[in-house]
């Protein structure tokens, strides 16, 4: 009588394949978790930006196509389409938005012609290269038209008999302000790096505005977290923390200031450690 035995090699091979399959799945899950981890960490910042920047921008864009009216018991929003923009560009608000347009002077004509020729030459050289997509060509052409229109508006409103509107005033403040800020900042930074007497005192004076900003943010945070009359008061009432001054309380000060500050420092130190290269660099 012959007894048939099950080959042990096939059983071992099957268990080995199963182990390899499990290891492959585990490795795949690990790699997926590693890819998702950075997104999870930046998700709170993205949500804050969406809530405080993108969402209000979208609401403002919608409100520009609407008309707000105060009615008994509240307000009413009516969608009016392009009526607001029509009023700004060609309607009753044109003189306030664009300004009072006058005939350009000879100097104004010369400035506009020079800038227009430079814009056309730049666009022609860009097209002549031939390395562009349709979208890039549209954006470059649109930028050329916008810059040319802006120069034409400046020439007609800043000349004799004209009066600049809010658009021109805003452009002047932005570009002139940014130019002088960077020039002055670069000059002061260069002076504070030279071996001049009193440079440490001036460094401290230059840093005072930044510290004042931090103090202002601290007071704003304190007002936001005020459990008595702050904007989050309904939330504190639901949580049972109404009329509780956590800033003046020893426990709240220790937990909110000491622990929170150390948490930020520890996170920064660990992040720096993880960001170091695998091998030390001399």
TrEMBL record:
Keyword Hydrolase included in the entry's annotation: no
Membrane topology note: Multi-pass membrane protein
InterPro entries, sorted: ABC_transporter_permease, MetI-like_sf
Record localization: Cell membrane
Chief location bin: membrane
Coiled coil: none
GO cellular component: plasma membrane
TM region(s), chain numbering: 40-65, 107-125, 137-155, 167-189, 201-221
Keyword annotations: Cell membrane, Membrane, Sugar transport, Transmembrane, Transmembrane helix, Transport
Alphabetical list of PANTHER family matching this protein: ABC TRANSPORTER PERMEASE PROTEIN, DIACETYLCHITOBIOSE UPTAKE SYSTEM PERMEASE PROTEIN NGCF
Protein name per UniProt: Multiple sugar transport system permease protein
Organism field: Candidatus Hakubella thermalkaliphila
């Amino acid at each position: 009588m012959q007894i048939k035995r099950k080959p042990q090699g096939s059983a071992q091979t099957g268990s080995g394949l199963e182990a390899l399959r499990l290891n492959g799945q585990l490795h795949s899950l690990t790699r997926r978790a590693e890819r998702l981890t950075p997104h999870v960490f930046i998700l709170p910042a993205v949500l804050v930006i969406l809530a405080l920047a993108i969402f209000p921008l979208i609401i403002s864009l919608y409100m520009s196509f609407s008309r707000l009216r105060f009615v008994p018991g509240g307000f009413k929003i009516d969608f009016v389409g392009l009526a607001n923009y029509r009023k700004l560009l060609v309607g009753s608000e044109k003189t306030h938005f664009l300004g009072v347009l006058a005939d350009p002077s000879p100097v104004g004509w010369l400035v506009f012609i020079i800038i227009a020729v430079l814009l056309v030459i730049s666009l022609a050289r860009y097209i002549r290269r031939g390395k562009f997509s349709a979208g890039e060509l549209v954006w470059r052409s649109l930028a050329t038209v916008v810059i040319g229109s802006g120069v034409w508006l400046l020439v007609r409103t800043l000349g004799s008999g004209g009066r600049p509107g809010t658009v021109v005033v805003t452009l002047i403040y932005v570009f002139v302000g940014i130019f002088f800020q960077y020039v002055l900042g670069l000059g002061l930074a260069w002076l504070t790096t030279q071996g001049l007497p009193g440079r440490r005192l001036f460094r401290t004076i230059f840093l005072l505005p930044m510290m004042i900003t931090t103090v202002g943010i601290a007071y704003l945070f304190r007002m936001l977290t005020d459990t008595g009359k702050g904007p989050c008061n309904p939330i504190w009432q639901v949580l049972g923390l109404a009329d509780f001054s956590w800033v003046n309380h020893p426990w709240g000060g220790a937990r909110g200031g000491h622990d929170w500050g150390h948490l930020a420092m520890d996170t920064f130190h660990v992040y720096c450690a993880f960001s170091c290269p695998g091998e030390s660099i001399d």
